[in-house]
Amino acid sequence: MVYADLHVHTTNSDGTMTLEEMPAAAERAGVSVVAVTDHDRTHPALDEPVVQRDGVTVVHGIELRVEADDQRVDLLGYGVDDADGDLQALVDHLQTDREQRGAAIIANVEDRLGVDLDLESRPGLGRPHIARAVANHPDTDYEYGEVFEHLIGDDGSCFVPRDVPAFDEGREVLDGACGLVSLAHPFRYPDPEAALELCAELPAVERYYDYGHAVETELVEHAVDEYDLLVTGGSDAHDDELGITGLAEAEYERIAARIA
Known about the structure:
TIM Barrel; 2 domains; globular; alpha/beta
C-alpha cells in the first residue's frame, strides 16, 4: 500500500486534476500524503510547505527542469516556502518564457495544419495541452502521441525550445526555498548513470517510479548507499489516478522530518 505519493501534477501545469479534486482521488487510492509538484511552477493555492486538505496531507512542491552538462534532468523540491524571493523570481521568469513559447508552438501548429486550435497560451500551459487540442480537433487525424512524434516533440517541425536553468542554479534556488530536493526519475534520461552522479550534490533521489519497463534498479541502490540519500517516489500522475507507486509510511516519516 502506498502511503505517500510524492509526484503529482494538477491543472496548475499540465495535469487534468484540480487541487480541489485531489483529496477525493487520494482517498480512492488509499493515499494519505500527496506532493503537488507542478512543472516549473508552485501552486498559488498552497501557502505553506505542508497543509491539510480534507484529511489528506498535501506537500507543496515543484518539479524544476535543469540543464546538466549534455542532458536535461528534473529536480523535485518538497516543502516549498513561497516567501522565498529567489524561487519566485525564477518561476516568474520561466512562466513568462513558457507562455511565449506556447504561443509560438500554437502558431506553428495552426500554420502547419491549417486549423484554429482555439487555444491561447497562458502561464502553466505545456506541450501536453497543445497535443490534446490537436488530437481533439475535428479537422485533424493525429493521435495524442503522434502530435509529439511528428509536430511538437524535440525534433518536430513545430518545436520551439525554452529557457532552462543550469543544474547548479536550479539546485541552489531549490535548496534555499525547499526542505528537500530530489532527483526525479533517473531512468528517463539519456544517460541515467551521469544523472545519478548529480546526487553527489543532492540529498535525495526518486527511487520509486513506474517507468513501464524494466530498469537497472541496482544503479539507484548504489547511489543511495554511496551518497547517503533519502528516497522519494511517486506516480507522476497527470490525471486523477494516484498511488501507482510511492513511499511506505516509515519512508515518508524521514521525508516529513526534513520538510516540516
